Amino acid sequence: MKSGLQTTVQDLGRYGFREFGVSPSGAMDSYSLQMGNLLVGNDLGEAALEAPFIGPFLMALHDVSIAICGGNLTPKINGQEVPLWKSIVIKKGQILSFGELKEGVRTYISIAGGIDVPFVLNSKSTYITGKFGGVEGRALIEGDILFGNPFTRRNRFLHTQLIPKYTNKLTVRVIVGPHTRKFTSAGIKTFLNEEYSITSQSNRMGYQLTGPKIEHSCTADIISDAIPLGAIQVPASGQPIILMAEHQTTGGYSRIGTVISGDIPRLAQAQPGTKVRFKEISLQTAQDLLIDSISRLKSIYRLTR
């Protein structure tokens, strides 16, 4: 009925096609997406709706369970506020709407039975820059119909320990490198000890930060090479850029570090103006944290089947 600011269909992303210049895309906050799917009984990687800042107005064509996770955009059904992080039933003809942004940035609407859009390169994710995936490669517009295979599953909710808290100050863990020789020792010290702010010039492609200048030892440019999710580029301005879900596949700016996978969801919910500090950890520690989080997620999933 109303599209919201930029509501798109997203799953866990499109992998295996970077050599062709295809971004992974996918949910900015993969944790909220997976928790929503768990609550409504879907596979963890099923597509959901991602809505940043201003949510859509949606009318149910069938009785169906939904779960709303992530940022709190004050969801309501027929004008009555409903909880996040819980499966609820929206009945045929009822309207799901959103209002004031209270916390976080992006809300995820998981629908029991999933969203029936074509797989493009093994994913349902919308890649807006490439104009494919999701619904015709674009954000939702008034009149779109998202057919699925609806069913209802009531009153599933998450333990409070599993619900993240979104704040205006973040410490994100990073693996330093690979282009440390491109920076002076003072530049690396600045990166790891100073505070930066997320600017309004931030989107699904990347977050531009502002703060103390990070000093290069020579030119900021490199021969273009592959870029992972969470890579932190530092152009000649000395202001870092954190690359997010819809990042380009290669780049020619020197990279001072990479945000670990487990901290990307918290970054995805950070509003403009959020203060960010970087904390160095080892590759081994990052891998251990990732293995542990995957193990816990699988355990929760098995318990709910």
TrEMBL record:
Keywords for the protein's UniProt record, in alphabetical order: ATP-binding, Hydrolase, Nucleotide-binding
InterPro entries: CT_A_B, Cyclophilin-like_dom_sf, PxpC
SUPFAM superfamilies per UniProt: Cyclophilin-like (SSF50891)
UniProt domain Carboxyltransferase: residue ranges: 19-297
Top-level taxon: Bacteria
Signal peptide boundaries: none
Protein name: Biotin-dependent carboxyltransferase family protein
